[in-house]
What does this fold into?
Amino acid sequence: MLAQKVEEAVRATGVSQIDANEIGLAVLPPLRELDEVAYLRFASVYQAFDSLDDFEDAIGALRAEHHSQPAAAE
It folds into this structure.
């Protein structure tokens, strides 16, 4: 499913050739939905995290997203 989402995003650009880094960046949004830890690991490479602050910022964004979503019914 993730690969299909990435393929659709890449095809939607309409470009016949795409840089491998662009594919890596296209993986990030669906990976974030699937597995946040895997997303952080992958993002650290494709978004070139240089410091702990970069990780803290990404974690803070994930936490903020969780707080802004309504609680799931149990």
